[in-house]
Fold this sequence. Notes:
The structure holds two protein chains of two kinds.
Chain A: H1 4-15, H2 17-50, H3 52-56, H4 67-104
Helix pairs in contact in A: 2-4
Chain B: H1 15-18, H2 31-53, H3 58-63, H4 70-81, H5 84-97, H6 100-109, H7 111-126, H8 131-135, H9 141-175, H10 179-227, H11 232-249, H12 254-262, H13 274-288, H14 292-296, H15 304-335, H16 356-405, H17 412-436, H18 444-466, H19 472-491, H20 494-500, H21 514-531, H22 535-542, H23 544-553
Helix pairs in contact in B: 2-10, 2-16, 4-10, 4-15, 5-6, 5-15, 5-16, 6-15, 7-13, 7-15, 7-23, 9-10, 9-16, 9-17, 9-18, 9-19, 10-15, 10-16, 10-17, 11-12, 11-15, 13-18, 13-21, 15-16, 16-17, 18-19, 18-21, 19-21
Amino acid sequence: MAGSAEDQYVAAVAADPRYQALVARRARLGWWLSAIIFFAFVAYLLLIAFDKALLGAPIGDGVTSIGIPIGLGLILLAIALTGLYVVHANRHHDAQMAQILKDHAA
Amino acid sequence: MRALVGLIALLPAPAFAAALEGEAQRQPINWVAIAMFVAFVGLTLWITKAAAARTRTASDFYTAGGGISGFQNGLAMAGDYMSAASFLGISAQIFNDGYDGLIYSTGFLVGWPILLFLMAERLRNLGRYTFADVASYRFAQPPVRSFAAVSTLLVVSFYLIAQMVGAGQLIKLLFGLPYAFAVVIVGGLMMLYVLFGGMRATTWVQIIKAVLLLGGASFMALMVLAQFGFSLETLFARAVEVKTQAALADGAGAIEAAERGRSIMAPGNFIKDPVSAISFGLALMLGTAGLPHILMRFFTVPDAKEARKSVLWATGWIGYFYILTFIIGFGAIILVGTDAGYLDGQGALRGGGNMAAIHLAHAIGGNAFLGFISAVAFATILAVVAGLTLSAASAVSHDLYATVFKQGQASSVDELRVSRLTTLALGALAVLLGLVFEKQNVAFMVSLAFALAASGNFPVLILSLLWSGCTTRGAAWGGTIGLLTAFVLTLLSPAVWTTTFGLGTAPFPYSSAAIFSVPAGFIAIWLISRLDRSPRAAVDRAGYPAQRVRAETGIGAFAASDH
């Protein structure tokens, strides 16, 4: 069972302004990225629902339609945003959090 | 005649599950495919034997001891998620309608980033074996655990029935074996993997399957592209030409034929009204973040950092796979659609509408590659059903038996015994349901599973993780209301009411319940929590700050047991 020592540790970390700032920053990043992918997908669906012709229009003189780079682009956006989050967390969040935890460790 | 066009062309929304339905025409026995499949089974059973020797505790059984790396777990998640329906179904849909297949693909992918941004690390930090560990972290255990277990069993059952029926049809189609035989093989093998090898064997079955599927699909896409000078423009131009010629041969006038050819470059009838469009998209996106067998995989890695990496790898592989499927579908239009050898007298695909990718494999690599792809499709189903069964068994043994009935006092040995008994029962049940539903239209079941996960599990997880005001009653009852709303509205929707039961015009006109049932879940949890004045509610709210710190930092997280 988690003893009271661990509870004190948790309380000390919670009270640290650096911890509060880090968690707020990380949460903001998470919500922003979620909102981007969420609304990008919803916009795509609305485009499909309301303007099929636009998505079907050819690019320049070719055959490929505008919808194809948009659809494939959405797939790539999902991968890119996940990558962005992971790289950012690896570079910044982990080290900062490790430092905070170390400072409060008994 | 000999073949029927797959239901895919006829059903609008939940068509991807229909991918594996319709009348699958039994094929002559394919010995190459059987030999390849036997090799796969031999390898996986050998791995299961090795895994069995290391599966002694509940932790081994549920999470492979927590020692899977982020890279391995990402592949296994991809293996858990990419079903035969998404391979054969989406490529078949592209073969028929072109662009529409891409809409499914994006819908299946966009849930993964959200899972990462809002949940993955916190899940790993708070949970041990099942997502219920996280959902019930600061709450009274019995109500929230019971909700999570029931929800898991519902989601898994519907998903499993669709997979078993799909497996039977597919194997009849590919291997020329009788349906019942196929269902028993799938059920039996899945039981062996899970029963003896637990999560360790299941993980490796999923990894091997993912590698085979990605390798096979990469080869197909590469060979298709090579024929068109690695130019997508040339590929699309040829496909439009083929469709135009087909329309002309069909007796269409020149202008109409050109229009019909051109239509594969644009969204078609897939989405009729905006409400259905958004609703269906929500179910796919948020449902992904609530599937119990996917969430369970987060507990197999050592820490939050590896959990994060898992999602990046999974998203990358799954996204890559959908891009390949797109190329494969268009390749099939040209290479399969113009070859009379793959068509019956009426110009439909021999063997059924879902055979596009399978015929393409033959067109590209002859009988040997056809056998390989058939074996991969079979392996794909096995990997998915093994993951589903494991998560349902954990819900029964860890959430219901150990936590609710034994109040956390069950020994690891007892818990393990119960999960194995549950696995046996589930395996038998899956075979039985597979046989019962053989002739039924189970197309709606996968979309129902996603809608349930999006409306019950997802709101409960998000609010218990991120809202301090959430209480035991709010989570248990609000989640149940979300589940029920999704369930009832799906029953009243056209896919079930009209198509499956033939009851006439559906009372609920949209193709997915999610746009109503997801908000219903969230609002119910919020309202019930707000009105909750019980003593327990005070404890629940007081528990939030400490839970939040543990979720964010990983203090007190369960560590890997075998390193």
